[in-house]
Amino acid sequence: MHTPLTVYKASAGSGKTFTLAVNYIKILISNPYSYRNILAVTFTNKATEEMKLRILSQLYGIWKLLPSSKGYLDKVTSELDITPEFASKQAGIALSNLLHNYNYFRVETIDTFFQAVLRNLARELDLTANLHVGLNDAQVEQMAVDKLIEELTPTSKVLKWIMEYIQQNIDEDKSWNVIGQIKQFGMNVFRDVYKDNRKQLNALMENEELFDSYVKRVRALGKDAEQRLEQLGNHFFELLDENQLTVNDFSNKDKGVCGYFVKLKNGKGDADEILGKRVLDAMEDPNAWVGKKEQNGDGHTLTVVRNVLFGYLNESEKVRVEQVKMLKSARLALRHLDQLRLLDKIETKVREINEQSNRFLLSDTQSLLNALIQDSDSPFIFEKIGTQLEHIMIDEFQDTSTVQWANFKVLLQECMSHNQSQSLIVGDVKQSIYRWRSGDWRLLNEIEKQFSNSPHAFKVERMTTNYRSERNIVDFNNAFFELACDIEQRELKELSPDGAMQMQMAYQDVKQLVPTQKQPKGRVEVTLFSKAECEERMMLRCATQLKVCLSKEQGQKI
Question: Does 148 map to a domain?
Fold first, then answer.
């Protein structure tokens, strides 16, 4: 049964690029004139050039039946059920077509593709023909903030907001000069999460009465969390009094487990160091509360610990985690609320500056196209690129943003409706690195949800064999990451059940296989350094190991 879309969840070294190249070549060998109907996208120019070079070189290798292309030839002939001679002939025709029509060799970055769509939609979007694309978001945003400050008047609402922000900084013993902070925070106007929620956010910020009510509510939540944390500490000392005990009756006194409750009582329940080793030991074993002479005995202190304090500590930590989350959320919200009110004004200035300069920012491309696509019943937008696409290949899908995917999904579903479509998605959730560009790894992690209502079939395949690394390296990673994921998942279950489930899905293929012919080679060494001298010793150790490796490779002493 023909499946129009295949999703490859591929771990490191499992042949993602090989798989994408093989599928591209298979389409060309089946029909050497189909190059106009294929689009392959990735995220960097370097990856694009690498993919183009690989496809061209392997087409040449298959054409000439070179030994270096045997792996590709065997894969193609096996899956297409054709002879090597036929594959060679078709590859030669496909290579000639690509080289003579190179503009239609559409292996490009995701930004390049959508820029092409945007330029062809200039008329529909009311964009001028001589529009130029701006890449430097930061420069434009800083100009916008400077202009916003210059145009302030004594009665300006924006001036009132900035003065409130300055006063808040002064109250917290911070600098009164907030311009740099405003410029840094103002970069949020280019983020997808702001664009998605801009209307709701501005409705709150413009309504003074609603805003003041919201601020009071957030402050009340933060104050309540502070009081609950202090109550945990106070109640502990009440329990001590009820049982005729003091801090001095416990191991390490106020430097031990009692220090945990001292900090809670003194309003330091959110301190990072509150949960030290002694406290963690005390949560596991009642004996850790008392000195060695009293351990495993039936003394008064240990008896009270077993019957009362041990359970109270564990329960207190559960409550503390929840209340600290609430407290920090309230503080973060209050810290940025005054800046949030400025975002709409900054964005307005950014757009004014761009219009005056006849500039369109690259970061606006996705959201603009997305708005246009949502209002359309057909993907006419993508027809404007000048070719009819039937096959879509997306590499490094784990780094795709929500808005990018919303745009691509329309095109992909259109391709899937074609009988001969051989689209594919390749990615690895564990290698997601573009979160600073709004990359959303959950799209790949929960890819089944994206097509739950689709009438077209698709399948998910996992690539778990590591062809790149040596056996000892893979064995170490399997042992380490399986255990690390298990520990992390158990901790997440209580704090975030959904997060624990997502993590389980993301790392369910963390264990990799190794080709049977690989011998046990490779070496892993783990060295732990103290925090004080970590960086210097680490760099020195790395340099030493590099010299050793180079020495072995070159067969001489360095």
Answer: yes
Q: How many domains does the chain have?
A: 4
23's tokens: 């599928």
Read off the amino acid at residue 458: F
DSSP string, 348-383: HHHHHHHHHTTEEEGGGHHHHHHHHHHT-SS-HHHH
Residue 248 C-alpha from the chain's centroid? 48
pLDDT in tens, 254-275: 888 899 999 999 988 888 778 8
Q: Are residues 145 and 77 in the same domain?
A: no
CB 179 within 8 A of CB 152: no
Domain that holds residue 85: 5-119+379-463
Would you say the C-alpha torsion 426, 428, 431, 435 has a positive or negative sign? positive
Structure tokens at 332: 């973060």
Angle at 174 between CA 168 and CA 175, to 5 degrees: 100
Residue 103 inside a domain? The answer is yes
Prediction pTM value: 0.70
88 inside domain: yes
Give the position of tokens 């078709």: 90
Residue 438, judged by CB atoms within 10 A of its CB (0-12, 13-18, 19+), counts as buried
What would the two tokens of residue 373 be? 């696509």
